[in-house]
Amino acid sequence: MKYKPIDIKEMMALPRKAFIDRNLAWIKHFNNGELITVDDPADCPLNLWVWHNRAKCHKQYVATIAVCPLCGNPMCPDCNNHCVEQLSRVTGYYQPVSGWNAAKQQEFKDRQRHQI
After folding, report:
1. What does the alpha-carbon distance between residue 43 and residue 82 come to, in Å, rounded to a whole number?
2. Alpha carbon distance 26, 16 (integer Å)
3. pLDDT tens-digit series, residues 39-91
4. What sign results for the dihedral spanned by CA atoms 52, 58, 61, 63?
């Protein structure tokens, strides 16, 4: 799909789905289909779009966290904000995943999730 060049203001004014599609096309064309590598999830283009458009989530807790289609980091499935804290139940207690060691965090990412 061929896109005409647009400036950053026009890009940020796109609807969420069009913004994601435009970025995925860029990733496919210029990044060989590899997800964007960001040091901080706040630097993901989708998260910048959320902040620019003041997308708000009215939920404090959600059952499952989505994965960003652009950078692969966890995000809120409702508003696409990347500033989320993942909790998981370990030995009966809920704990933030960010406090786990790197191997345990990778095991958490590799878990298979099934819809029933």
Report:
1. 9
2. 15
3. 887 888 888 888 888 877 767 777 788 889 998 888 888 888 888 888 888 77
4. negative
H-state helical runs in 37-99 = 45-52
Residue 52: both structure tokens together: 């620019």
Tokens linked to 53: 């458009």
87-110: string of b/e by CB count within 10 Å (b at 16+)? eeeeeeeeeebeebeeeeeeeeee
Q: At what angle do helices 45-52 and 16-30 cross, to 10 degrees?
A: 160
The answer to whether the predicted template modeling score (pTM) of the entire model surpasses 0.70 is no
Q: Check if the beta carbon of residue 69 is closer than 8 Å to that of residue 20.
A: yes
Residue position matching structure tokens 């969420």: 16
Query: d(Cα 62, Cα 6) in Å, to the nearest integer?
Result: 35
If residue 109 lies in a helix (H) or strand (E), which one and from where to where?
helix 102-110
What's 9-40 look like in SS3?
HHHHHCCHHHHHHHHHHHHHHHCCCCCCCCCC
